Amino acid sequence: MEIRQSAEDYLEAILMIKEKKGYVRSIDVANQLNVSKPSVSYATKRLRENGYITFNEDGMISLTESGMEIADKIYTRHKVLTDIFRSLGVDDEIAAEDACKIEHDLSPETFDALCKYARSHGLSES
Fold first, then answer.
1. What is the signed CA dihedral for 84, 124, 5, 55, rounded to 10 degrees?
2. In which residue ranges of the chain is pLDDT below 50?
3. Are the beta carbons of 49 and 3 closer than 8 angstroms?
4. I need a surface site. Which of 53, 64, 77, 113 has the fewest CB within 10 A?
């Protein structure tokens, strides 16, 4: 199933928040992505319907196995690209922003080549 970039962004944000806080609320996602709460409600409804996330009785968001697979893939790409850009002397914030812009569009072949390059030059642990 093809998943859109915005859905990937939501899943990645959920994973990042979970790693940082240990739990994820809709308001956390809104703040992370700088979007409105209604936008988060709409997106999370679609993600739940497609089996990528669940909500517990307290309204906390969790990734399903398929949601985690996508989120982890995108987040790994984000971290590797950010590391590479930083190693080139790009400011941390700009490196992260630029990584976010291209993490969705790289082919697996190009990303694998970047990972090999980064590992061989000690630029990334991923």
1. -150
2. 1
3. no
4. 113
